[in-house]
Amino acid sequence: MAILLPLSYADLSSETQALLAFSTATPHGRKLNWSPALPVCTSWIGINCSTDGTTVVGLRLPGVGLTGPIPQNTLGKLTSLKVLSLRSNRLSGSLPPDILSLPSLNYLFLQNNNFSGDIPASLSPQLNVLDLSFNSLTGAIPLTFRNLTQLAALILQNNSLTGAIPDLGITRLRRFNVSYNRFNGTIPTSLRRFPDSSFLGNFLCGPPLSPCSRILPPSPSPTSSLPHPNKQSSTKKLPIGAIIAIAVGGALLVLLAALILFFCCIKRKKSDNEATPKVKSSVVGRTEKPGEEFGSGVQEPEKNKLVFFEGCSYNFDLEDLLRASAEVLGKGSFGTAYKAVLEESTTVVVKRLKEVVVGKRDFEQQMGR
Question: Does residue 153 carry a pLDDT above 90?
C-alpha cells in the first residue's frame, strides 16, 4: 500500500531536510531552535514561509556565528527562496553556485564574511539586491551581470576583485559600489552617474574620478639614483658632545609627554566617574525574534541595542534599521515611535529610547501598555 502526500507537503518536507542538513554541517555560535518537532514556518528562527505555508521563501540568519563553507545541496534546494541574508558571519570558501542561481531569489545579502574565489557566472535573473561586500573575493565581474535587468543594488566594495569594470547597462541600478578593490581602467559611461565614493581605492580613472592620462610619464633612468663613482661622500660624523646633547634632549621630551598624558588620563577618569550613564536603545514592537535580555537601564553596554518583544522567528539588527525608510508614528515621554520599512519590504514598528534611565521591570511594564 502506498501513501500519496500532497505535492506542497512533500516540497516543504524536502526543504526542511535541506535546512537541517545545513544547520548540522555548519557550526554556529548562537543556538537555533531548528527542531523537526517544531513547525518550520511558525517556530524556526530566521525562516519565513509563503502565505499558504507550503514553501520557504525567506532565510535570515545575520550575525549568528555561522562558520565555514556552505555545504552543497543544502540551501540550494530551497527553490522558492526569495530572500537570503547570511551577512556578518564567518562563512568561508567559494560562493555556492547553486544558491546564487536560485530561480526566485530577489535579495541576497552575504556581506561581512570570509568568502573567497571568483563570483559565479550563473546568477538568478530575478535579483534585485546583491551585496557581497567585505569578503575576500577575487577575479573579474562576470559579463553575465548584464543579464540582471532587475538589479537595483550591486555592492561589491572591500574585496580583491580585479580587471576592468564592464559596462553593465542596467537602467534600474540605483546603488552601486565597487570601492577598495583592484579594478583598473576607465569607468564605464553608464556608471558615471554614481558618486566618486563608489570607485575609490582602485586604479580607475575618468568621471567622477580624475581624468585618464593619455601620455605615460617617462620611466626613471636605472642609473639616476646611483652615486657617481668619482664623487666622494661629503657627510661628516657628529661630535660626541652633540650626540650626547641630542640624546638628553630627546629623553626630556619623552618624559614631559608622559607626564602630560598621565595627568590627562587622571582628569578624564575623574570626569567619567562623575557622569551618569544613559541608555540609548531601540525597541522593536513587532513579533520578530526571541526576546533578548534588556538588563538594567543604568548599564552602559546597553547603548545602541535592539530589544525585541513578543518573540518571533524574524532576524534583523541596527544595520537594517539604519538603511530602512522610516515614518514617525508618535512621540512620548520615553521616546519616539517609528514605522520602518526594511530593505526587503518588511514593515516593523520601532520605538527609539533616548536619554532614559529606567530599570528592567519599569521598562517592560511601560512597553507592555
Answer: yes
